[in-house]
Amino acid sequence: MDSLSSLLQADKIDELRTRLANMIPADAANALEELDIEQIFVVFHLLPKDLSAAIFTYLSPDLHVKMVEALGSQEMTDIVNRLKVDDAVDFLDELPANMVNAILANTRPEMRASINSVLNYPEDSAGSLMTCEYVFLPEYLTAGEALAQIRQKGIDKETIYTCYVTTPKRVLKGAVSLRQILLSPNSRPVSELMSPTVISANTHESQEEVSRKFQEYDLIALPVVDNENRIVGIITIDDVVDVIVAMNTENIEKMAALRPAEDEYMKTGVLKLASNRIVWLLFMMLSATFTGMIISNFQGLLSQMVILASFIPMLMDTGGNCGSQSATLIIRGMAVGEIDPSCWYKVVWKEFRIGIIVGVALGVVNLLRIFLFMKDVNFAVDLTVTATLFCTIITAKILGCLLPMLAKVMKLDPALMASPMITTCVDAITLMLYFTIARSVLL
Amino acid sequence: MDSLSSLLQADKIDELRTRLANMIPADAANALEELDIEQIFVVFHLLPKDLSAAIFTYLSPDLHVKMVEALGSQEMTDIVNRLKVDDAVDFLDELPANMVNAILANTRPEMRASINSVLNYPEDSAGSLMTCEYVFLPEYLTAGEALAQIRQKGIDKETIYTCYVTTPKRVLKGAVSLRQILLSPNSRPVSELMSPTVISANTHESQEEVSRKFQEYDLIALPVVDNENRIVGIITIDDVVDVIVAMNTENIEKMAALRPAEDEYMKTGVLKLASNRIVWLLFMMLSATFTGMIISNFQGLLSQMVILASFIPMLMDTGGNCGSQSATLIIRGMAVGEIDPSCWYKVVWKEFRIGIIVGVALGVVNLLRIFLFMKDVNFAVDLTVTATLFCTIITAKILGCLLPMLAKVMKLDPALMASPMITTCVDAITLMLYFTIARSVLL
Q1: What is the mean pLDDT of residues B236-247?
Q2: Looking at CA atoms only, how far is residue B428 from chain A in angstroms?
């Protein structure tokens, strides 16, 4: 099959148009990414306007910025006018403020008002995720009248599958699905069909909270209301899926001591990536100075028994791994709302018992391994190492669950307490234990 | 407000019924979890059958099993008959095989056939996630006829918002949204309205693949087809959200060297939790033996310069942290489909340059910190530590990106290569470098 670029060069315009029209917009956008910017403009002029707007939504942020720079605000306005409000907001969010103002100055007034109302909400809020294109029905309509209204006004709406029943002042009274309207007799009043208990979100609620509501109630759309319970927009599930994925990436990055980045790895410059990593690395390197000081303190003991040094890596690594296992489970459990820090004593008690089981298992293996395979290590050293291992495991398990819960209670982000932070704490405690036990057992 | 339990005891049946009927099923299920099992049975008998089935879906797995044990298969069958196919499958999946057979033996034949067809697919496949309750339309219908058919047959379907156009043998020809049908003139043929390019999944495709399609194409439903492109079911977005969340939890757990667990932390026993952790801990403890051997090998050097030991924790931790930062970004990038292992050389080149920047930054801070604040350490030792730090950082960055990509190419799970595995490798290399540099600089 010929590539888009060769079709363009051979002037096979009809074939090109048919090909793109038969593609799903997301795929068409992918195919366009291969072309250079002038070719993309040619293609955009060839396509029906609705299709080009649909494809535009799926182009990469890079290309969006390039197109704005090349096209100027007047032509961009034509495109923005045809986007859905939430897609327009996503697109404008990527641009520098002066470009946004230039484009908004020319959009149609209703569109501008809608976009502005969404752009004004804080970045992480429900308000900034919503679209203003929803169907609302006055409470006095019948099912038949409602259906007629949806058929007439539904064309520009993001979804017509859930409709919101409101008073004349747009106060939310209930929700009714298109399904219920369609499967009911025409004469039935909407107010009888609607469910009066509607899950909604306040404009200032966090997006994390919003995504939890979608998961808990299996929603496909959620109305967003202001403080007087007036509906101002809706959030649809496709945008929530993006939020869930982004939140997960952010959490994983924080747990690995990375400053969360908005951009994709392959598209981010080396300097930016390096700077996202350096801050935490420096912090952790400097806190490891503390562990170094502990070892310096015990230099006398160590120079008498150099063999002790060879177990330091094993003890530190096992402690770090134990701690990060617990921390990971607790951080994830709190993120999905399953673990509540107010029950901290239950969690600690559970981790303590797990620590004992794990400690005994690893301790026995370690004792035997040294006894059987390291003939030059005397049994007192073996016992010292094993006793330290056991204590380290229990300490690591308890710190691993306590620190993230403490962070949560102090309104800090628990993910920041993950493995690297806990490793640093556990290291220090492990070494103190090790040398203290060694001094009393061996000297 | 009185609790459900006190309403029950006071025999205020009407109030109880109204209260539950006005609640959202997920909330009603939460409220019921507070009651004991006999009370739940009483409540279930008081409620309209559809409502009790809707609430049943949201009860916890624990309670499901208890109810089956107490009710017996006959009464359970009545409940299962009223569930949606995919909810019934989720519920049956939690039960032991003999209970499943007893319940299935009594369900209505179409329901049994549907459930069985879904239960027969592998656990991680698209087939096991689908429901058989979808709307299909013959290709010769008009919009008006299609609407009439949806109104007549749509009642039991999971979603009526996307309908699939098929040949008489159910071969998938296209998809048409209820929205398009509703907003078009009644006489327009469905075959003109439908979009002929439909994203679909094969029954044996992985659920990870399915969730990626939902994200990429902003879908709310996805048809599942067999090898002859005949539609056998659909997957809806609410189930995909659950898959995305579960996949993320699993990845995070694997990255922290935990065997992924299906159950919630608070509901899992101590022994089970401990056993999920011990395998990897043992493996990593034993591989740390190797690092111990390296130190033993250099005992002579170490006993001459005990001060070297005090920098081991800092070097090991920084190496481990650097490696896990890179590994995390690469694992996540591959999971969301952004990084492709076939471009491994680009990634390595990027990490190499990041390593140099990070290495220089941390190296300078380290050199100065030792020079200024640790007067008893001579400058040659300072240089040795800093040179090792620099080499460790670069090695860790490169291993951190190479190992997960290697795992992917070898069809292993990249998440298993995360921080603990990389820490172990980096530790060994760091110590080798450290002592080799020390021996040539200091002796």
Answers
A1: 86
A2: 9
Cβ-Cβ contacts under 8 Å, A377 against chain B: none
Give the residue among B280, B288, B282 at the shortest CA–CA distance from B259. B280
* % residues pLDDT > 90 (chain A): 18
Give DSSP secondary structure letters for A108-133: -HHHHHHHHHHHTS-TTBSGGG-BS-
Mean pLDDT of chain B: 85
Do A211 and A243 meet the contact criterion of CB atoms below 8 Å apart?
Answer: yes
Q: How far is A317 from chain B (nearest CA, A)?
A: 8
Position B374 scores a pLDDT of: 85
DSSP E strand boundaries for B178-302: 201-202, 221-225, 231-236
Residues of chain B with CATH 1.10.357.20: 267-442
CB contact under 8 A, B161 and A179: yes
CATH 1.10.357.20 maps onto chain A at 265-442
pLDDT in tens, A411-439: 887 777 666 778 888 989 999 999 999 99
B267-442: which CATH topology?
Answer: Tetracycline Repressor; domain 2 (1.10.357)
Comma-separated ranges of CATH 3.10.580.10 domains in chain A: 136-241
Give the position of tokens 């986007």.
A83
Q: Which residue of B has its CA nearest to A184?
A: B151
How many H helices and E strands in chain B? 21, 6
pLDDT one-digit tens code per residue, B12-39: 888 888 888 888 888 888 888 888 888 8
Find out if CATH 3.10.580.10 is the number for domain A136-241: yes
What would the CATH number be for the domain defined by B136-242? 3.10.580.10
DSSP characters over A194-212: SBS----EETTSBHHHHHH
What is the rounded CA–CA span in Å between residue A230 and residue A279? 45
Residue A223 pLDDT? 92
Among the listed residues B53, B183, B31, B46, the one whose alpha carbon sits nearest the alpha carbon of residue B111 = B53
CATH 1.25.60.10 in chain A is located at 4-121
pTM for the full predicted model: 0.73
- Mean per-residue pLDDT for A53-74? 79
Determine the CATH number of domain B4-121: 1.25.60.10
CATH number for region A265-442: 1.10.357.20
Measure CB to CB from residue A361 to each of B278, B312, B328 and give the nearest one. Answer: B278
- Bridge-based pairing of strands A221-225 and A231-236 is antiparallel
How many H-runs (helices) and E-runs (strands) does chain A carry?
21, 6
ipTM, interface predicted TM-score of the complex: 0.72
Sheet bearing B136-138, strands edge to edge: B136-138, B162-166, B172-177
Outline which parts of chain B fall under CATH 3.10.580.10.
136-242
The answer on pLDDT for B442 being more than 90 is no
Chain B closest CA to A98's CA: distance in Å?
Answer: 30
Bridge partners for A164 per DSSP:
A136, A175
CA atoms within 13 A on the CB side of B316: 31
Q: How many CB pairs under 8 A join A and B?
A: 321
Per-residue confidence (pLDDT) for residue B408, from 0 to 100: 87
* Partner-chain contact B26 A216, CB within 8 Å: yes
Backbone angles phi, psi at A136, to 5 degrees: -120, 145
Selecting from B251, B313, B358 the residue whose C-beta is nearest the C-beta of A274 gives: B358
* CA distances for B436 relative to B5, B57, B378, B441, angstroms: 73, 63, 18, 9
Residues in chain B: 443
Pairing type for strands B162-166 and B172-177 reads: antiparallel
Report the pLDDT value the prediction gives residue B223, as an integer from 0 to 100.
Answer: 92
Q: Which residue of A has its CA nearest to B357?
A: A274
